[in-house]
Amino acid sequence: MQDENLTTWLPRLAMHGGPRFLQIADALQAAVVDGSLKPGDRLPPQRQLATQLAVDLTTITRAYDEARRRNLLEGRGARGTYVAAPKVELTSILDLSMNTPPPPDGVDFDDLLKQGLSQVLMRADPELLMTYHLAGGSDSDRKAGARWLQPMFGDLDPRQLVVCPGAQAAIAASILALTQPGDVILAEPTTYPGLRAAAAQFGRHLVAVAADKHGMVPEMLEQACRLHQPGLVFLNPTLQNPTAVTMPARRRQELAGIVQRCNVRIVEDDPYWLLADAPPPPIASFAPEQVYYISTLSKCLTPGLRVAFVLIRDAQERERFLAALRSFALMVAPLTAALATQWILDGSADGLMDGIRNEARLRHRMARDILAGRYSGAGDGLHVWLELPAYWNSSQLARAADSEGIAVTPAEAFATGGGSVNAIRISLGSIKDRGRLRAGLQRLSQLLARRPESFSTAVV
């Protein structure tokens, strides 16, 4: 495209139409979609376009950067900027299997990331961001952790917190700190697969304790504690992964009382508390000395931060946990920890989380409308636990879905033993585009309505 043809796609910048750089990027995208701009067309130099639109050069630079992020443009050095050829999709898989936060509408994540890193680099010594740190986090990181956990516990002493490189590391360190090889770990019949993996790797035995619609059954927990003398009890009480059950406050109190009487520790993995609608207080608030409480940023903000906060009230147990953590993970990456701290303390984390929470609820409404009578979600969180009609079993349904380009997680992936529910977990956040999510849910709904056929794998 020659510079003199500028007016064929230029937008009319609206005063209240949102950030101007996004208006320009949206206009570029619309022009590519309708064919006004074609692959190989040359765009005008940024200064020329800034003059044409009566905006500053920074606005055009940000617009071009956003268009490149959307794979609309490509730079060719001194020759200029051109409309990019469309990327070839090598796979059409619709991933409903990975529990990640959905991209929030109206939040410019790229800009948030750039601004956060800019603030970190401006305020911190770069050398300190690239060297070894003691495990457990800096004073600033622990203060940020106390701020993050304030909705659950109110004011906390930051010294009671440990900063970990993700919840999986925190779970592994808890197992090493609280148990010995051969010990029993109690969990619900369906639970987080990362617990299963860590227990197997460390030579611990996972034993299922019966659960009902409110979570682990207190009488069965007490019986299992006396029978097995477990090293710890693992619970995920809020929007449980995978069942999406939120344990009511009374049940939490009952379980807390049992572990106090039996002198057993609970590892409370609570990644979804901040996404839930009016969740009860954590179990750790009912038995502060008995519970290791884990809260990760991966499910509320973004997995790439790899930061989790662990609340351990007892100083000696905290040191034991830190020693276990140091055996396989010396520290959180200082740069990502500093970014997490910056976002939490300047309020960016709250804004991002609000956007993710709203987007997740919108996606739950979509799932409820499409899956109709099969939907049994809570209306919040990142996933739905879908019980299947009798003519499907979960592994069979997962294979059938895969053959139609849809990835879901069968119940077997979460089973702790003694059989599993005939269900699948559907994750609503991993598909960025709502239109593609809708298409995946509709295709899945159609598959569920059909009776299974014979599925075979080609051999080549």
Automatic annotation (TrEMBL):
Q: SUPFAM superfamilies, from UniProt?
A: PLP-dependent transferases, Winged helix' DNA-binding domain
Q: Which Pfam families match?
A: Aminotran_1_2, GntR
Q: List the GO molecular function terms.
A: DNA binding; DNA-binding transcription factor activity; pyridoxal phosphate binding; transaminase activity
Question: Mind telling me which CDD domains this protein's record contains?
Answer: AAT_like, WHTH_GntR
Sequence ranges assigned to domain HTH gntR-type in this UniProt record:
18-86
List the keywords (alphabetical): Aminotransferase, DNA-binding, Pyridoxal phosphate, Transcription, Transcription regulation, Transferase
The reply on keyword Transmembrane helix is: no
Q: Which PANTHER family match?
A: HTH-TYPE TRANSCRIPTIONAL REGULATORY PROTEIN GABR (PTHR46577)
Annotated family: In the C-terminal section; belongs to the class-I pyridoxal-phosphate-dependent aminotransferase family.
This chain belongs to the protein called Aminotransferase class I/II-fold pyridoxal phosphate-dependent enzyme
Please name the source species: Duganella alba
